[in-house]
Amino acid sequence: MPGSVLRSPYRVRKGFTLIELLVVIAIIAILAAILFPVFAQAREAARKTACLSNMKQLSLGWLMYAQDYDETYPMSAQCSPGCPEPMVFWTELVDPYVKSGSNAKNQYGGDDLSNRGASVFICPNYLKVPPAVDEAGNPGDDPNPGQYPMSSYGPNRWITAAWWALGQSWAGEASQVGTNASIGKPAQTILLAPNHDCCIDTWGGGGSNNWTRAARRHSEGANYALLDGHAKWYLGPKPQYGQVPAPWTAESEAPGTPVAFCARNRPNAPVFFTPRSGDTDQVNYDK
Questions:
Q1: 36 CB neighbour count, 10 Å cutoff
Q2: At residue 139, what are phi and psi to the nearest 5 degrees?
Q3: Counting beta carbons within 10 angstroms of the beta carbon of residue 223, is it exposed (0 to 12), middle (13 to 18) or buried (19 or more)?
Q4: Rounded distance, CA 219 to CA 47, Å?
Q5: Which contacts (CB < 8 Å, 24+ apart) does range 61-64 have?
Q6: Is residue 99 included in any domain, yes or no?
Q7: What are the Cα distances from residue 255, in Å, to 34, 50, 167, 262?
Q8: What's the structural domain count of the chain?
C-alpha cells in the first residue's frame, strides 16, 4: 500500500555487550565486598549481645543464691559425699535461679549435647579459636575450642573458693568462701569472666591461660559480670598472651586491657580480679 512501511516479521533484540556485563559484575562484586563485612559485624554484635545477656542472668542468679544463703556466694566446686567425685559445680548451684538455664548439671558438656546453644551458661562464641601465636609472637598453649562449652564463663577464683582450696595457705583469699560483706568494691570486682577450656574458675593474670585465650572473644574484647549485678564489655589484652611483671603480687598483669589482675598494681583500673577488699595500697608481699 502507498505510504506504508514494510516491517520484518522478526523483531530485532538487543543483548548486553561484554562491557556492560563486566560493569554489572563489577558493581555486584563491590556491593558484596561492602555488605558482607557489615553482615558479619551485625552477626557478631548479636552474639556479643546474647553473651552479655547470659552474663547478666548468671550474675543475678549468683546474687539471688547469696541472698538465700546468708549472703554467702556459691563455691566454684563443692564436695559431695564420696569426694572427690561426684562434685557439684557453681553452674548447678546457680541454675535454679536462672531463666533458661539448660545443661547446668555437667560442667564439662551437659547431659544433652544437642542443646548446647540453648544454654545460658554457654557463650555463642565458645567455638572461636584462640590464636596459637599472638601479635608479638607469644605462643598460646591451647588453640582447640569447643571441648568444654559449659566452661564458657568462669567465676573469679579470688571471690570464692573450691572445696580443695578451703583452709589452704597457698590459696590466699580463695581459701575462704566469699560473702557480700567481704567485697569492698562490688561495682569494680569481677564476678564472671570469659573462660576457655576445662577450668571451672578464672584468675585473670597475664600470659597464656584460660582467661587470656577467651578475653578477645567478642570484637577484640569480652564481656564481664560484676559483683553488683551489672555486665559490661571491656577491651582484651594486646598482645593476647603478653605479660607485664607485677612487683606486688605473684601474678603478672596482661597488657593493653583495662581489666586488671590486681587493683594494687593498677589502682586506676575500672575492673579487677583481686583483692576482695578492693584495697589499692601497695603491700610488699616479700616481707
A1: 10
A2: -80, 145
A3: buried
A4: 10
A5: 61/94, 61/95, 61/97, 61/98, 61/101, 62/90, 62/94, 62/97, 62/155, 62/191, 62/192, 62/225, 63/227, 63/229, 64/97
A6: yes
A7: 33, 27, 32, 13
A8: 1
Residue 113's H or E segment, with its range, is none
Which residues neighbour 203 within 8 Å (Cβ) at sequence distance 6 or greater? 156, 157, 158, 209, 211, 251, 261, 273
Element (H, E) at 191: strand 190-194
Q: Which residues pair with 272 in a beta bridge?
A: 189, 260
Residue ranges in the chain whose pLDDT is less than 70: 1-16, 38-39, 41, 80-82, 84-85, 99-118, 143, 282-287
Q: What is the DSSP letter of 150?
A: G
pTM: 0.81
32 occurs within a structural domain: no
What is the rounded distance in angstroms from the CA atom of residue 186 to the CA atom of residue 145?
A: 31
Among candidate residues 191, 197, 190, 199, the one with its CA nearest the CA of residue 257 = 190
- Cα 176 to chain centroid distance, Å, stands at 25
Compute the distance between CA of residue 65 and CA of residue 148 in angstroms, rounded to an integer. 24
State which residues form the domain around 226: 48-274
What pLDDT, on a 0 to 100 scale, did the predictor assign at position 35? 72
Closest CA to 152 of 90, 116, 113, 197: 197
Q: Is 179 left (phi over 0), alpha (psi -120 to 50) or beta?
A: beta
**Residue 285 domain flag:** no
CA distance 239 to 93: 36
Torsion sign over Cα 202, 203, 209, 213: positive
Q: What is the pLDDT of residue 206?
A: 93
73 occurs within a structural domain: yes
